[in-house]
Amino acid sequence: MRNNLFVSLVHYPVYNKNEEIVATSVTNFDIHDISRTSKTYGVEGYYIVTPVDAQQELTKRIIGYWQDGFGGAYNKDREEAFSTTYIVDTIEDAMKDIEEKTGKKPLIITTSAKIFPNSISYKELSDKIFNDDNVYLLLFGTGYGLIQEVMDMSTYILEPIRGNAVYNHLSVRSAVSIILDRLLGEK
């Protein structure tokens, strides 16, 4: 089954560098690049989670430009990429929308640079996505990562992406691309 994976970029609740719970800013690059990557890999929906009204309005304006404005007429590919991009207040709102769309409550998969007791390999999760009847919501955090309560509600936590150097701080849009390719790319 390939129509069972959804992704979400979570701007709240996440940690800042002082481990305080904050809302981070939505960025134009993340809206565009994750929408395009999600569409390229056949992800069913991309949810941008932010409860901040001003951030939601900015995101709607950007998406609207590419769907209804000059951008949509100018670049049909971008218009198509945004056709499954949604803005929600909370992770729970994304889960509810997915359940309404699919009839199934999604299992939560989170990402982290750390190993947890419920960590899962890319191969194991890919096999599940392709072979079982579950629906999955893959959460990506911004700032300094998803808060502990979100990690605790996860069915699985994907193993970290490891580069070939000590430095390990990918942009979230790069991490989304790598992870979707590992999970859904050519076998």
Q: What is the CATH first-level class name?
A: Alpha Beta
CATH topology-level name: Alpha/beta knot
The H/E string reads EEEHEHHHEHEEHEHEH
Q: Please tell me what the overall shape is.
A: globular
Architecture, CATH level 2? 3-Layer(aba) Sandwich
Helix content: 40-55%
Tally of distinct domains: 1
Poorly predicted runs are none
Describe the protein's topology.
Blueprint: E1 5-10, E2 14-15, E3 21-22, H1 28-40, E4 45-49, H2 53-67, H3 70-74, H4 76-81, E5 85-88, H5 91-102, E6 107-111, E7 119-120, H6 122-131, E8 136-141, H7 148-152, E9 156-158, H8 172-184
Parallel strand pairs: 1-4, 1-8, 4-5, 6-8, 6-9, 7-9
Antiparallel strand pairs: 2-3
Describe this entry's structure for a reader.
This protein has 187 residues and is α/β, with parallel strands linked by helices. The protein has a single domain, classed as 3-Layer(aba) Sandwich (Alpha/beta knot). It has helices spanning 28-40, 53-67, 70-74, 76-81, 91-102, 122-131, 148-152, 172-184, and strands spanning 5-10, 14-15, 21-22, 45-49, 85-88, 107-111, 119-120, 136-141, 156-158. The strands form two sheets. It has a seven-stranded parallel β-sheet, sandwiched between helices. Helix 1 packs parallel to helix 8 (172-184) and helix 6 packs across helix 8 (172-184).
